[in-house]
Amino acid sequence: xxxxxxxxxxxxxxxxxxxxxxxxxxxxxxxxxxxxxxxxxxxxxxxxxxxxxxxxxxxxxxxxxxxxxxxxxxxxxxxxxxxxxxxxxxxxxxxxxxxxxxxxxxxxxxxxxxxxxxxxxxxxxxxxxxxxxxxxxxxxxxxxxxxxxxxxxxxxxxxxxxxxxxxxxxxxxxxxxxxxxxxxxxxxxxxxxxxxxxxxxxxxxxxxxxxxxxxxxxxxxxxxxxxxxxxxxxxxxxxxxxxxxxxxxxxxxxxxxxxxxxxxxxxxxxxxxxxxxxxxxxxxxxxxxxxxxxxxxxxxxxxxxxxxxxxxxxxxxxxxxxxxxxxxxxxxxxxxxxxxxxxxxxxxxxxxxxxxxxxx
Amino acid sequence: xxxxxxxxxxxxxxxxxxxxxxxxxxxxxxxxxxxxxxxxxxxxxxxxxxxxxxxxxxxxxxxxxxxxxxxxxxxxxxxxxxxxxxxxxxxxxxxxxxxxxxxxxxxxxxxxxxxxxxxxxxxxxxxxxxxxxxxxxxxxxxxxxxxxxxxxxxxxxxxxxxxxxxxxxxxxxxxxxxxxxxxxxxxxxxxxxxxxxxxxxxxxxxxxxxxxxxxxxxxxxxxxxxxxxxxxxxxxxxxxxxxxxxxxxxxxxxxxxxxxxxxxxxxxxxxxxxxxxxxxxxxxxxxxxxxxxxxxxxxxxxxxxxxxxxxxxxxxxxxxxxxxxxxxxxxxxxxxxxxxxxxxxxxxxxxxxxxxxxxx
Lengths: 360, 360
What we know:
The structure is a homodimer.
Chain A: H1 8-14, H2 20-32, H3 42-54, E1 64-71, H4 86-96, H5 101-108, E2 111-119, E3 135-137, H6 155-174, E4 179-185, H7 190-201, H8 205-208, H9 217-234, H10 241-248, H11 251-266, E5 270-272, H12 275-287, E6 295-297, H13 306-313, H14 329-347, H15 351-354
Parallel strand pairs in A: 1-2, 1-4, 2-3, 4-5, 5-6
Helix pairs in contact in A: 2-3, 3-14, 5-14, 6-10, 6-11, 7-9, 7-10, 7-12, 10-12, 11-12, 12-13
């Protein structure tokens, strides 16, 4: 399937909802498994959705990968983050040296971690890095513009960030990856995510904005003000996902939206992580509502607006453990649960196979 | 540590709360890890508690095991279950043939599954079974008496069931098992569990009783009536865990309580599963409140009273996925999360090791 050169309009046109027929067949198999009816709850919903996505009764997620999208944000000038901007580039190096949270948790589920410079301010020299074969330099620009003073990027840059994510994810799917987790790194990126969340879910700024990596009360107020100004100045059109992305940013959020479109286009499940990944999902959903059929929400973040985003997408998070790190960590941990769901569906005996008496 | 011959009073006397000093030390290490303060939420609480239990900053749960306790229940004569009693024995065979839910999910985390006949009505001939080296026949009696007509067992039998669980778990710990999950099998066992839960948490019967494996409205009413009569006739003393266990049963619940006492005695973490395992935890807690320091609640069951039991024990469940199978399945799935917590604590780089700039 040569999908890496396709344009956005064509992508959206080709995405179709998951075929309910396979989900129904999968439910019939679940009913035969050796337990009271649907006694493993959400695990059945997960495995049956996978059957629907993969159009099979033998779902497999053996080949797993994470795509960690990194970008910088002009809005950090407004004092919206507790960490300095150089951390974005420093963390990329750590991802490639296998030392960050996502490396640890992706390692637990045997998933590869790919890292993309979607638009980091600093230049990272891959020659010196261990994991350079897992690193893609796709800078759309050196950081977005300050969303509270004008558009974070041009409409062309927004389209490019989405298509870049799409092409990279499509490349992995074409090489056999069966399930993809999205991750993010970008100092300041809870601010554009909250801005996108406010506009696309129609929530109040106060409900959507949290402390991110840990700003104090004054920092929280500055975040709210930056978003308020950004929405006022830019007047993003909530009916137009590309407009919202271009006005509010960022490049990694566009990249994540592209990964999500690629999953739906290729009929592969995508596991979104927390607040930033879900902002990417909101953009993808605004462009093409059917993408949610192919999504699993790994967890519910401690960031207060995340619950509102998930509700808007009608996605129920798998885990709820007060996490708020990003990088894809919540999705990685949730892949253990998805893996368990698949194993139950495929490996558990049926009443008949086990020779056990059924319900009276 | 020769603990297999010890008596109950001596066991309880020797159990001490977890040493807060190690938890404090562990929190100091967490603060240095490469992320915003405590950004992985509950994962930190889990790893730090493990450090406290194991008295180390290098916690390990590499060697994992499950103990599935099976027993039958005289109260099934009241029509409280949707499945016939012979299923208890049939399921033991399936556990030993590796075909049940617990086998699948324990397999995912590389945990061994041991099965104990604590008091099943049918006799299982181990000679014909694959997993006979993982099967212990420790019948206290061939099923309990009907709790709604009198005591489910004698006080001696209650003590014996607890000590049996203690000795078997102690045996595993002495052979190097680092974390133990409890599981259950016993047609009808949500009824004694709900009875124990009602008495030990002081809840209303209506709040505590659910549909178990799937009884209809009439079956639900019969369960409530059986428990109401059982409490009225037996007058269990909620200050005396052994009295509650003996009046309301069952043998597998006593066995689970014994496993929990063994964990606390040996300073090993025990992961409890759902409604029945938590009834066992309530009995252990009534005998020795300090046991909760050594417990992880794997999940919150769909069985409505489970939340009340966990609240009484001040345990927060790791997962909440609408599961209600028992066998230890919720604990097995939760072990993935506990494993992730350990890996984050031990394998993630610190800010210093990674050379990443800290908070401004």
